[in-house]
Write a structure and sequence with these properties.
The structure holds two protein chains of two kinds.
Chain A: H1 4-15, H2 25-52, H3 56-63, H4 66-99, H5 105-111, H6 114-117, H7 120-130, H8 138-141, H9 152-177, H10 180-188, H11 193-222, H12 225-230, H13 241-250, H14 254-288
Chain B: H1 16-45, H2 49-58, H3 60-93, H4 99-107, H5 114-125, H6 143-151, H7 160-170, H8 174-186, H9 189-196, H10 201-230, H11 233-238, H12 249-258, H13 262-293
The chains are: A mainly alpha, B mainly alpha.
């Protein structure tokens, strides 16, 4: 009888989950926060404090200068188009890799990761050579007066390359888990294959497609390595924002570089929130269906 | 025709011509953007013959770049691996407020442009930064640390430590983001059982948790290492671009390319391409092992 209250206490504590069976909570969380702060948060905070040294008019003059505006336009425009092309072809590639069996499928599947694995500098010099006027691909466009390398078109090509895996890799697991029964139901209800695709399949993969698109877009916005080689990097014409930041740095204009960096950081954080939002929506969408 | 699977029943399968059209479109797209670049690297690298290729690789500057690249990866990867394990343990085994925020913050370096990743370290350690080398730095943040760095002439930016730090930043989330979902899916029951059977904390980790997550861990380490060795933008900002001293392989490629030593640039690039191909093979292997064992656990 004397043990009862003590036993009751233990039961109560475990019941309320205040008693931790597993060790290491303080140590691992402490180390996580320490390392995160040291490597990521403090350096990122440095960008904001450095930018805070500028007055509003100074800040505005840098981030709304014609050169900066032209760079935003190219960065956002080319990234958007590249993500759009990747969404379209990524859907086809993911569909083909998941649904069909043909020679070379596994090799192609593995190669999709190449843009992730290849250093961006290697991608950059390779694409610049390939799409140059005497390159294997560029020479087919040259007779029509279309120049790809060292133009805005080249920026688009590089951003398409580095964003390629995102849509494919986001869609593949969704298509693999897709229940054929749903398509069968559509077929028994009289839908032809095309109707089944755009009325049944497309709406169900849309959240994943949107996630892949947003990931490819976010990655393209920050890309530097591959673009710097394939673009001629001329201000107002073929210069993207990261290259503009880099040129400010090379001129030791740290305030200018930081102001632009803060604009890009805020945009990336917003994009990250949007992506997390889409994924939360995907989770609910998935749970409902 | 025989190679196309006919396991789908007719009403839920596309007509043959649609299938072939889609396969052709997908393969054409991948050939244009993946296979041709891959072929270009090796064709360019070998365009002046095997002798020139080997000569370019044997260059002392190439070797010092290889050494620095391996050094940066050898420091950044284990540190981020330890962090990944600690973070995944804290996040998957315990409940606490702000967990979602923490997971988002861990992913943060993925969404930061490489150039900005390098820039923020310049702002901390650079000449005019918080811990700047000049005695009259604008904002001495930790005066004792600044004094220490000055007194011992420790250079961080435009030197090797800066390259290591930038590499750590860009590869920061890799291991953690592979481990967190796997460990969350596995739950806490096995570890709790080990504890009730009398195992200590470390024993539980080594003998229960680690065998469960080893393939996911390997997967994360492979991706982390590939990015660490291949990083360009961030190290470009913090490196002094001094040949033989602060040049990593990717920076070495840039210099060779910009000096119109195209074949030499592609020879070094072929080395990194080979590394990328090995990474893809290892990644697929770890993925298969992982899906065969870790996911069959439940």
């Amino acid at each position: 009888m004397a043990y009862a209250p003590a036993l009751q206490l233990v039961v109560m504590k475990t019941g309320a989950k205040t008693f931790r069976v597993l060790p290491g909570f303080r140590f691992t969380l402490g180390y996580t926060l320490f390392y995160l702060g040291l490597v990521v948060l403090i350096p990122l905070a440095a960008a904001f404090t450095k930018a805070a040294e500028l007055t509003w008019p100074q800040f505005w003059k840098i981030v709304a200068s014609p050169m900066a505006l032209a760079a935003y336009r190219l960065s956002f425009g080319a990234s958007f188009l590249a993500a759009l092309v990747n969404a379209f072809f990524g859907l086809i590639v993911a569909w083909v890799l998941v649904r069909y069996r043909f020679p070379g499928r596994k090799l192609m599947d593995a190669l999709v990761d190449l843009p992730f694995a290849l250093p961006t500098a290697v991608s950059g010099i390779t694409l610049a050579t390939l799409y140059a006027q005497n390159g294997w691909i560029g020479k087919w466009f040259a007779p029509f007066g279309i120049q790809i390398s060292y133009t805005r078109l080249g920026v688009f090509v590089a951003l398409t390359f580095i964003g390629l895996p995102f849509v494919v890799r986001t869609l593949q697991p969704v298509l693999e888990d897709f229940e054929v029964e749903i398509e069968e139901a559509a077929a028994t209800l009289g839908a032809n294959r095309w109707k089944t695709f755009y009325r049944v399949i497309l709406p169900m993969v849309a959240p994943a497609l949107l996630t892949g698109f947003a990931l490819a877009f976010a990655r393209a916005l920050g890309e530097y390595g591959s673009v710097v080689f394939i673009s001629s990097n001329i201000p107002l014409k073929t210069q993207i924002v990261p290259v503009l930041i880099m040129s400010r740095l090379q001129q030791f204009d740290y305030a200018g570089a930081t102001a632009l960096a803060v604009v890009m950081l805020v945009i990336s954080f917003l994009l990250l929130l949007v992506i997390n939002g889409i994924q939360a929506w995907r989770g609910r969408h998935h749970a409902r269906t | 025709m025989a190679s196309i699977s006919t396991s789908c029943r007719a009403p839920t399968a596309e007509p043959a011509w649609v299938r072939w059209l889609l396969i052709l479109a997908a393969m054409g797209f991948l050939a244009l953007f993946l296979v041709l670049p891959l072929a270009t690297v090796f064709a360019q690298a070998l365009s002046k013959g095997v002798g020139y290729y080997l000569q370019a690789l044997m260059d002392p500057m190439t070797w010092s770049a290889i050494k620095l690249t391996f050094l940066a990866a050898a420091i950044a990867v284990p540190l981020n691996c330890l962090f990944g394990l600690a973070a995944a343990w804290a996040i998957s085994k315990f409940d606490f407020a702000g967990k979602n925020l923490l997971v988002t913050l861990i992913d943060l370096p993925f969404s930061v442009s490489p150039v900005i990743s390098g820039l923020v370290y310049v702002l901390v350690f650079g000449a005019q930064g918080w811990l700047g080398l000049y005695q009259n730095a604008e904002h001495p943040w930790l005066p004792w640390l600044q004094h220490f760095l000055n007194a011992h002439d420790v250079r961080i930016i435009f030197a090797v430590p800066g390259i290591v730090l930038a590499t750590m930043f860009v590869t920061f989330p890799f291991v953690a983001r592979e481990l967190i979902p796997v460990m969350q899916a596995q739950g806490r029951m096995e570890e709790e059982a080990a504890r009730t059977l009398g195992a200590g904390g470390w024993q539980t980790f080594w003998r229960v948790t680690l065998p469960n997550i080893k393939w996911a861990l390997l997967y994360g380490v492979i991706l982390c290492n590939a990015r660490a060795m291949g990083e360009f933008g961030a190290v470009s900002v913090v490196s002094g671009h001094i040949r033989g001293k602060t040049n990593t392989l990717t920076l070495h490629i840039e210099i060779l390319y910009n000096e119109y030593h195209l074949t030499a640039a592609f020879a070094v690039a072929s080395l990194m391409t080979f590394l990328a191909l090995v990474t893809i093979v290892l990644k697929n292997w770890a993925e298969r092992q992982g899906s065969a064992r870790e996911r069959s656990a439940f």
